[in-house]
Write a structure and sequence with these properties.
- This is Fanconi-associated nuclease.
- Nuclease required for the repair of DNA interstrand cross-links (ICL). Acts as a 5'-3' exonuclease that anchors at a cut end of DNA and cleaves DNA successively at every third nucleotide, allowing to excise an ICL from one strand through flanking incisions.
- The chain is built from 34 helices and 22 strands.
- It is of the alpha+beta class.
- The longest helix is centred in the last third of the chain and has 27 residues.
- The radius of gyration is 32 Å and the shape is globular.
């Protein structure tokens, strides 16, 4: 793979489906000269590409654009705020009247995350409170005002182990207004409208409700009738069994009994409660209780304050779907308990009753994605509203006015591949009226429709053909004068139809396609553009999407607990975001062009990126409090263009266009002065200049790079070696000061192996000491275990060290530092791979390193493992390395050497997170626990040490580690 390609692919993430904006498409056209300045200029009323203009949908008429500019009116049926265009009002009224019920209040997400952020600078707390109050008032349904009920939070309720309390700018108090006088442990955004919770029997207000368990739908669980809340001894809760797909498929029978069993050792959730089949002799496991219910039931079960039993009340609609059950929870007598314990258990019981009365533990999983989608939009609009135009804000706000069916249909098709979908094949059980949902989305501008009333040539014919099945393609080809049905593969049939359409043989193809497919729908361009932006701003990367919510809810992924303290916005102005988005589009075009081997378009992307970067201000290392932190630079257009150009250098070097590569490298080094890639750019510039027969200039570049503070690790070592090689007399007489260090000898060990193959370009396979086939690393492990001194070890390269770093420096990584955490889906702070990481946490980091140096590393490791096991953290691999092995490594390495290594990573994580020796070996010398460790880099018959590996070996030797290179050669008779 070309150098920089993988990095660019990660930066792009999810590719955008919408076509290029007209301005960018024109610039990338071969017939168009490149402009001298950035084309990403837009006024406040504009949007991204066509989505930024006055059009809000596929139509350009007054109401066809979904009435974005129309006034907002209240629906006389449900009281919701809707836009006042004729189409929107009529469609909304039809749906309301057909449904015949008032719309339920949209409530908090099931995700249980703290998405509200502490803001210590602009916008000020006062302004933020006003903004939250304004937005909350706008979103409160008329149902809330008619009920005239209140909702209060128990501010004394503590957070769980995975959730820490944060300060909210405001929340609803008992009178329904916003209050700012309390700090609560919350899992919902500050603009979430909280529901009214009343006692199902007495209709009295339930005032004690844990914020961690805010209800997600109207209550539907049954509670045994009782006149006094405190006197309830037995309650019945209707809920479901979740997680069945992770367990054996057991035949279910209705009305069969079930039992509950605590699972405190569960790596994903320490509050987990297993559901067992009581009818089975071995009590087969059916799954788990929902996390929300388990969280409040666990304390009572752990205190042995309740007895639980239940039964299956229904069978799931799908084979592995959620199983409806009813559990009966009876309070036990507490005669033998102390008075303090009785009071504590009584308070737990009262809170449990209040929560199960207000919550719905039968919410279908199909509604979760809708709630999460709304949460994502609300969070971005609350924290990044300044980067959206008024047209875009109005368009996104209209999503809340859509019916549940409309919202669910949109989210469903947005998360699918597409782009086109047959309406006849769309079927989701949570969408009751598909026709109304489709028309509602069409009139609101969220989808485009392809039907007999739309001219198909307006759309991409290749996408339309992709809607056909293989039999349908064959039927269309049979009706043509020339039979072309000899081809059978799907792509062959599609290419045949497309070629026949373009050469005029099958001009009626669009109508024939619609005859087979019927009406088709896809996400509109404006909706796709804005939702791509929303998702990018929410997750801050291109890799994560809405599936991250579900991974958390199902317990597959657990994110660390940290506070989001924000003082600077990532995008200061709207124009910054638009330029960044345009750069991402150029990167995507280049990536797609490389896939299609379209080198002309690749060259255009490189030229455009070079032109854009030339017109931008030179990047400086600004450290003033008013200036955004340097680690925000990854969200700038210049960062993206520099990645495109880095890949472009590899493209030019592959084609031996060294002059072009040299030009780009010189421009990168002159425009971007504070970047770790300067080492790679300097090295490639020196190499390419030597290719062009300019050794003096090559040497000068290498000498400058060797003393550049931003050139580090392997790149610096490589440049130093180049200086020594090129600076022979008479070109240079003085020997550099680092000559002796670079020329240090590295210990080598040679072993022989019997190879299976000796072909160049293939992975070396050898017969191991046990007679089984293995790679060179496994062969070396066997050698050190048998003949090398009884070493134990693992082939982990730097992985095991990254895991140890993450565990021992966990509190340092996730400490409360401003601006480094901007999303609740981060596995590391934004500044981890920058100099700012160690500088901003120096005191805390040195305190941890002092403990490591004093011999407390093993104790710290055990504590961190038990506290955070299963939580996602950059560099930490919970599955590959056992706690036993990690303890052995820490014990045998020694506190002094381990502290030096961890400090080295903390100071410059990015430069040193790769290239460590292949093998980590350890052995204990006596029963008292004394041991030693060894690091080994393994090289096959034709392998050589890379510059990064050499640099690591020398650093480890400086730290006092036992390091060596193990060279595997073939047995003489096999050579």
């Amino acid at each position: 793979m070309l150098t920089g390609r993988e990095s660019l692919v990660r930066l792009i993430g999810r590719r955008r489906r919408s076509p290029l904006p007209a301005s960018l498409a024109a610039v990338l056209s071969p017939s168009s000269p490149l402009p001298s300045a950035s084309a990403a200029q837009a006024d406040d009323g504009g949007g991204s590409g066509e989505a930024a203009g006055g059009k809000a949908g596929p139509s350009s008429g007054g109401n066809g654009g979904a009435g974005v500019g129309a006034e907002w009116v209240a629906c006389p049926v449900c009281g919701e705020s809707i836009r006042g265009s004729d189409y929107c009002v009529n469609t909304h009224l039809d749906i309301c009247l057909t449904r015949g019920t008032k719309r339920k209040l949209t409530q908090s997400t099931l995700l249980n995350f703290r998405f509200s952020k502490k803001v210590s600078a602009e916008p000020t707390t006062k302004n933020l409170i006003n903004e939250v109050e304004t937005e909350s008032v706008k979103q409160i349904d008329e149902d809330l005002s008619r009920d005239q009920a209140s909702f209060s939070l128990d501010s004394d309720t503590g957070s769980s182990k995975a959730d820490a309390a944060i300060s909210l700018p405001g929340y609803l108090n008992g009178s329904g207004s916003l209050s700012t006088s309390k700090t609560i442990s919350t899992h919902v955004p500050s603009d979430t409208v909280l529901p009214n919770v009343k006692d199902a029997v007495s209709n009295a207000l339930v005032e004690d409700c844990s914020p961690g368990m805010l209800p997600t739908l109207a209550s539907s669980c049954s509670i045994d009738a009782c006149t006094d809340l405190d006197s309830s001894n037995i309650i019945a809760v209707d809920t479901v069994i979740v997680g069945r797909r992770f367990h054996e498929n057991i035949e279910l029978r209705e009305d069969e009994g079930i039992t509950l069993l605590r699972d405190p050792q569960n790596a994903k959730d320490s509050d987990a409660i297993k559901v067992l089949y009581a009818a089975s002799e071995c009590e087969e496991m059916l799954g788990y209780l929902p996390r929300e219910l388990a969280k409040v039931l666990t304390p009572l079960m752990d205190k042995q304050y309740v007895e639980c039993e239940g039964c299956v009340v229904g069978l799931p609609e799908q084979q592995l779907g959620n199983v409806p059950i009813q559990i009966t929870i009876q309070r036990c007598k507490a005669d033998n308990k102390r008075n303090d314990d009785q009071k504590y258990c009584q308070s737990l019981w009262e809170k449990f009753i209040s929560i199960v009365k207000s919550a719905n533990f039968q919410q279908p999983s199909s509604a979760r994605y809708q709630t999460n989608f709304n949460l994502m939009i609300a969070d971005v609009m609350a924290n990044h509203t300044h980067v959206f135009s008024d047209v875009e804000k109005s368009f996104l706000a209209s999503f809340k006015s859509l019916s549940d069916d409309g919202q669910r249909l949109f989210v469903r098709i947005y998360t699918r591949k597409g782009p086109w979908f047959r309406k006849s094949t769309i079927s989701y059980r949570e969408i009751s009226d598909l026709e109304h949902a489709v028309m509602e989305l069409k009139l609101a501008g969220y989808i485009d429709m392809l039907s007999c009333t739309v001219d198909p040539p307006e759309y991409d014919m290749e996408e339309a053909i992709d809607l056909l099945t293989v039999p349908e393609m064959k039927e269309i080809l049979k009706k043509l004068p020339k039979d072309n049905t000899s081809c059978t593969r799907r792509h062959e049939l599609a290419n045949t139809l497309l070629s026949l359409y373009h050469n005029g043989t099958c001009a009626s193809l669009p109508k024939q396609i619609l005859k087979w497919t019927g009406t088709c729908i896809r996400i509109s361009k404006m909706a796709d553009e804005l939702l791509w932006r929303i998702q990018r701003l929410f997750f801050l990367n291109g890799d994560q999407d809405l599936s991250s919510f579900l991974l958390v809810e199902f317990g597959v992924v657990k994110f660390p607990d940290y506070a989001c303290s924000i003082s600077h916005r990532i995008f200061q102005e709207r124009i910054d975001l638009l330029e960044y988005e345009e750069a991402i589009r150029v990167a995507q075009v280049m990536d797609e062009s490389l896939d299609n081997n379209n080198m002309d378009l690749v060259t255009r992307c490189i030229d455009l990126s070079e032109n854009r970067l030339c017109t931008m201000t030179k990047q400086e290392n600004a450290t003033s409090p008013e200036h955004p932190p340097l680690f925000f630079s990854r969200f700038s257009a210049s960062w993206v263009y520099s990645k495109i150009l880095t890949l472009g250098v590899s493209v030019y070097e592959r084609d031996r266009r060294y002059e072009d590569a040299i030009r780009i490298l010189k421009m990168l080094l002159s425009k971007i002065t504070c970047d770790r890639r300067r080492g790679y750019w300097t090295l490639r510039l020196s190499v390419d200049l030597e290719h062009m027969g300019r050794p003096n200039e090559s040497l000068s570049i290498a000498e400058g790079g060797a003393i550049d503070p931003w050139v580090r690790a392997g790149s610096k070592f490589a440049l130093q070696r180049r200086v020594l090689r090129l600076s022979k007399p008479p070109r240079r007489w003085k020997v550099p000061s680092y000559a002796d260090y670079v020329k240090r000898n590295i210990k080598e060990v040679n072993i022989e192996g019997r190879p299976l193959n000796c072909e160049i370009g293939t992975k070396n396979l050898f017969y191991g000491y046990d007679g089984e086939l293995c790679g060179v690393e496994q062969l070396a492990l066997q050698y050190y275990a048998d003949e090398g001194g009884g070493w134990q070890g693992t082939h982990a390269e730097g992985g095991i060290w990254m895991t140890i770093f993450g565990l021992l420096m966990w509190d340092v990584m996730f400490s409360d530092i401003q601006d480094v955490f901007q999303s609740k889906f981060q596995t590391a702070p934004l500044d981890l791979e920058t100099d700012y990481f160690y500088k901003s946490r120096k005191d805390l980091a040195e305190s941890q390193l002092k403990k490591v140096q004093d011999g407390m590393a093993e104790e710290m490791l055990i504590s961190s493992w038990e506290l955070h096991q299963g939580t996602s953290c950059q560099g930490v691999n919970w599955d590959r390395h056992s706690l036993t092995d990690l303890r052995a490594v820490v014990a045998c390495t020694g506190g002094h050497r381990l502290a030096l290594l961890l400090r080295h990573l903390a100071v410059d994580y990015r430069s040193w997170s790769s290239g460590m020796p292949d093998l980590l070996l350890w052995r204990f010398l006596d029963e008292r626990g004394g041991g030693e460790a060894k690091l080994v880099e393994v090289k096959g018959p034709r392998d050589q040490l890379s510059e990064q590996q050499r640099a690591w070996i020398l650093v480890l030797m400086d730290f006092g580690f036992d390091v060596e290179v193990c060279k595997v050669s073939t047995v003489a008779k096999w050579r």
